[in-house]
Amino acid sequence: MTSQFAIALKQKQYKTYVLSDETANSVLEIVPERGGIATSWLVEGKEIFYLDTERFTNPDLTVRGGVPILFPICGNLPDDTFTHKGEKWKLKQHGFARDLPWTVGEVATKGSAALTLILDSNEKTQAVYPFDFRLAFTYQIKGNSLEIFQRYINLSEEPMPFSSGFHPYFLAPDKSKLRFEIPGMQYRDQNTHSKGYFTGVFDQTLDEIDVSFDELTGLAATVTDSSRDLRLTLSYNSSYGKLVFWMLKGKDFYCLEPWTAPGNALNTGAHLIYLPPGATCEMLIRMTATFL
């Protein structure tokens, strides 16, 4: 009997791993050397993610699309700088995990299609972040769900401060048909720092929306796209204390980003994770796409 789960390797511009669940007509594409990013996710043969292919083909640009990984910070640091033990270090927006090549670990096709990617600290990371670590992220698809199970391992001889998150770009050709159920009543504008109360919709006439829900009351958010008859649920474990919503006018995407801590947490300490030496921390996010 043929397994419904498979993993194939395609040589495109970058080596691309293709995970599939044939019964659900579900396919996930992952590019380890381009920041370990998931670039495409088909459910019932329909694309869930947005990808700016022009930016993706240029290795000098950050990827705008798919699911970029945020580590060891989410957001920006003032002047891209943080201080550790009195010394200043430079770290760019969202950290370095989304820019570096990841290596392939285990692959599995029993009960699901799963691929583990690994990022180890190296000279490049130590030049901007003075800690030794290993990240092991397992992408798994089954039916209409995608899970990303994460292990963060501190190989340093001191506690390792970090925050982490994801920056998924969801395809939305008609954003006027989106309705959001987010477990938070109040949001904060990340540019003006003004606060507002959420009603389930965002003002599509604005050039940019960049808001953060800092006090979550639940572990899942749901987006209904009536133009595509699609309900998308993003769930996450309790390590993720924030959801950031970002959108640009005229672009066919919206982003709903689970973060463990706000921007500048490496300096302020706000909600920062301090992982003890030799310790491991585990987290999970899950996306489920249902066509109505």
For the biggest β-sheet, the strand order reads: 9-10-11-12-25-21-20-16
Q: Largest sheet at a glance?
A: 8 strands, antiparallel
From the N-terminal CA to the C-terminal CA, the straight-line distance is 31 Å
**String of helices and strands:** EEEEEHEEEEEHEEEEEEEEEEEEEHEE
Tell me the β content: over 45%
Give the helix level as a range of percent. under 10%
Taken from the alpha-carbon principal axes, the silhouette is globular
Q: CATH topology, which one?
A: Beta-galactosidase, Chain A, domain 5
| β-strand number | 25
Can you count the helices? 3
Structural class call reads mainly beta
Radius of gyration: 19 Å
CATH class: Mainly Beta
* Domain tally: 1
Mean pLDDT: 96
The low-pLDDT segments are none
Can you tell me the CATH architecture? Distorted Sandwich
InterPro entries: Aldose_1/G6P_1-epimerase, Gal_mutarotase_sf_dom, GH-type_carb-bd
Protein name: Aldose epimerase
GO molecular function: carbohydrate binding; isomerase activity
Organism: Tychonema bourrellyi FEM_GT703
